[in-house]
Request: fold
Amino acid sequence: MELAASVQIPCSKPVDGSIRIPGSKSITNRAILIASLAKGVSCLDGMLYSDDTRFMMAAWKNLGSEFRHNGDFLEITGCDGRLLPCSMPIYVENAGTAARFLTAALTLGKGTYVLDGNDRMRQRPILDLIGALNDLGGSVKDTKANGCPPVTVSARGLSGGVVRIPGEKSSQYISAIILAAPYAEKRTTIEITGSLVSRSYVELTIEMMKSFGVRCDWLSDSRLTIEPGQRYIAQRYCIEGDASSASYFFGLAAITGGTIKVSGIKPDSSQGDLGLLGILEQMGCEVRWEDDGVTVTGKPLRAVEVDMNTMSDVAPTLAVIALFAEGTTKILNVGNMRIKECDRIHALTTELRKLGATVVETETGISVIGGSTFRGSDLDTWDDHRMAMSLSLAGLRIPDVGIRNPDCVSKTFPTFFEKFLPLLKT
Reply:
């Protein structure tokens, strides 16, 4: 459904509802890549169909995989690690996961591949990944010599070996390498320098690889190894609900003082963004896990000081919730937010100040003073799906809040407003 140029968010009384969240984008894109490299036919249940996953599927169609759709069920016939040549540029718009994972996977093919994206993607750094792949025997270069896409891959396979890569910017660099490494000629060992952001996503990658028959082992907190000769084996795989997308509904309960049950998420999930639930408990909310999901009940909110390095995608959600908490909420160690779909630290600061909020921006974090006298405003999304969804929460308590360019949610949650607005009690 195409939305208007701006969506108004009505203020809401305490809500009381339930929702089933669409499949995880992070899990879906990893599953598409693994199943596409695998031998045989994989069946993915709970597929997320969004802009990012469509770009990933389109790339693998050109590289030799076959896809058959049936609702949220996807059947993939893999290419068994033998990628087809592709003379046309592989376009991923602003899908960071697709860009990084595909850059590594393309080294396994034969011939020359070009991967490109939109203007924002052409500003997002990828040089650390390029350098690591070249150290492992790949031939990858940033076409414009600026450390960002487009990238040109002169594919001849990966040799493997030992590589050092910084962990501060993106865990996706490490995930990209370990996803491709089973097809290298020799053992691949990754030494991570500095602190690793979003470590839970690397753990998620390792867990999914294991489900498809490939092992990746930690040698220490900063060293990983993958043995050669392993191959992904086609599987039936269930994709759980997206924890990042669920965060906006957790926020809906927290801000209105209501209750929301979110189905489709497991208590033992590897998704790091579920760490937001523990933060909401610190703020005063009640969280109750059940076999088929989790229920959040909002209570009077108090400010927190939290390191969100492992869950930076839900930091915008917390920043908006913090508007309605007593005290100053400090969100720390999320500098990697600056190289997401937009510079989210700066974008949040700009938009929350439009509402009259007192916000302090640092290089690696943001502080929000709750309880101010707010005013309505039309808010810009910066063409960033997470900005659009998190900023929508502000309108639950602040009259006359509008969200410009709401269609940008199609990147990961095309039906967000269709599911969100009917839950409100006006």
